[in-house]
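can u pls check wat happens w/ adenosine-5'-diphosphate
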Amino acid sequence: MTLVDTRTPDPKKFIKGATGDWEIVIGMEVHAQVTSNAKLFSGASTAFGKDPNANVSLVDAAMPGMLPVINEECVRQAIRTGLGLKAQINLKSVFDRKNYFYPDLPQGYQISQFKQPIVGEGEILLDMPGGEQVTVGVERLHLEQDAGKSLHDQHPTMSFVDLNRSGVALMEIVSKPDIRSADEAKAYLTKLRIILRYLGTCDGNMDQGSMRADVNVSVRAPGGAFGTRCEIKNVNSIRFVGQAIEYEARRQIGILEDGGTIDQETRLFDPVKGETRSMRSKEEAHDYRYFPDPDLLPLEFEQAYVDGLAHDLPELPDDKKARFINDYGLSAYDADILVAERASADFFEEVAKGRDAKLSANWVINEFFGRLNKEGHDLSESPLTAAQLGGLVDLVKDGTISGKIAKELFEILWTEGGDPAEIVEARGMRQVTDLGAIEAEVDKIIAANPEKAAQAVEKPGLLGWFVGQVMKATGGKANPKAVNDLLRAKIGIE
Ligand code: ADP
Ligand code: MG
């Protein structure tokens, strides 16, 4: 890869060392498991959590004479992902053998793509907190096989091999070295994961290994020449990526400030200690002896096929966010929260349809998502439907219920279910907008507290106490504005 610096150094991101400021440079290689029922070159299942070696065909076990046959669905998913990353789609690409020995790699090589990947340059847009927009270049995306897994903890003297993952399709998505902080790296992974999930091309489950990141980190004098990088392999959570970068940058700065040099090497992150440690140096690096796999023809398809896939792509998070801001008048902050998952965005739109969008967004984000979070529920496990929440929003909007009563109604809908309007009628939760009734309560409270009322003329802050009393007396059902207006008039507050 030819390294090009696309970023202007930003002092806010510099790390202070003993000798001056340092800038971190990061590039990521993300392995994303393709969502597909079968493996890349065999018909074996990709289902997670099966007994060891339950999902293994003769091809995956590399039995002599077995031939790989490309799974079209994996190709389709890779192209769709490329389109989602606004990337160049290569109508011709080549599968190569990447040769190395490992007990869980029965072929003795991994089928990957080296010089001619299926997807070329693209980009990912990051919206950082504080409003900064960062564009991270994507260098390429290629298809490759996953390896199996060695199990060292099953027997005191033996290791076992599980080939369930062997041959599962991965997309390796390689970024340019455009990332300049741990926060940007986390935002990059988060955004990539969102895009993949929108497209349905990878489930993004990092705890099941469906998405892992190799994080390349170097440091340099701000704006200077790129430094020597270390690659931290297989980091499997977004939080760990951040921790690994912070640690690794500090480690490199320490060495350089002591007059040392950085050895290009592969390192591992230890989440318990919060440290990276050396795995192998450049000298020990493999020479993979790549060559085109003679069992496979070059992969070729027509532009019309790509155009068809482009046409059927779902609306992606950046477009959805822009639409939510423009069409619904939402803040960027609220829009970000709503578009983080396709299902959340759909839920919001169902609630907001034909209703006050901002009010709907408030209820969806604060009460509804807040409650789902608190209970550790996924949206799919919600006891509340968009129609029910929409009904509640209607009742708030037309003044049938007060905000306070709406929270009680939400609780009832959440725990018991039912139709919002019917519940309000059946349980007498309507807001009292009958001014006569409110006035009677106001008069009663003032009459019972003449001294306080006199004080309130001087100290209008006391008004809140009176409002509270009236609300209490009406079971929270009085229209708060009417209560306020009446109290001010009767007590004589300007
Ligand atoms: P290789 O194929 O040898 O692993 P590449 O040049 O393809 O190396 O780069 C791999 C990853 O390392 C890319 O994500 C790239 O952005 C990143 N990278 C390259 N040089 C640097 C550097 N000096 N600092 C940080 N990341 C880098
Ligand atoms: Mg690499």
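The chain is about 40% helix and 20% strand.
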